[in-house]
Write a structure and sequence with these properties.
Structural class: mainly alpha
Oligomer: single chain
Strand content: under 5%
InterPro entries: Tom22, Tom22_pln
Distance between the termini: 90 Å
Family: Belongs to the Tom22 family.
Pfam family, one: Tom22
Number of helices: 2
Keywords: Membrane, Mitochondrion, Mitochondrion outer membrane, Protein transport, Receptor, Translocation, Transmembrane, Transmembrane helix, Transport
Subcellular location: Mitochondrion outer membrane
Helix content: over 70%
Number of strands: 0
Length: 75
C-alpha cells in the first residue's frame, strides 16, 4: 500500500489537482470582479437612461392625450 501512495502517478495527480484548484479559484475571483463591475456600471449608467426614456415617453403620451381632448388631434 505504501508503494501505491508514493508512486509518481499519485504524486503527479496531486500536483495536477492542486493546480486545477488554484486556476479555478482565480477564475472564480476574476468572474466575481467582472460581475461587480458590470452590475455597478449598469446601475449607474443604464438605469437612469431607462428611467429618463420612460419619463419622456409618458410626457409624449400626455401631450397626445391633451391634444386629443382639446380637439387639436395629434401634431
Amino acid at each position: 500500500m505504501s508503494r501505491f501512495s508514493s508512486s509518481s502517478i499519485v504524486y503527479h495527480s496531486k500536483i495536477t489537482a492542486g493546480d486545477t484548484a488554484f486556476v479555478a479559484k482565480r477564475l472564480l475571483k476574476s468572474t466575481g470582479k467582472a460581475a461587480w463591475i458590470t452590475g455597478t456600471t449598469f446601475l449607474l449608467l443604464i438605469v437612469p437612461l431607462i428611467i429618463e426614456m420612460d419619463r419622456d415617453q409618458q410626457l409624449t403620451e400626455l401631450d397626445l392625450q391633451q391634444a386629443s381632448l382639446l380637439g387639436g388631434g395629434p401634431n
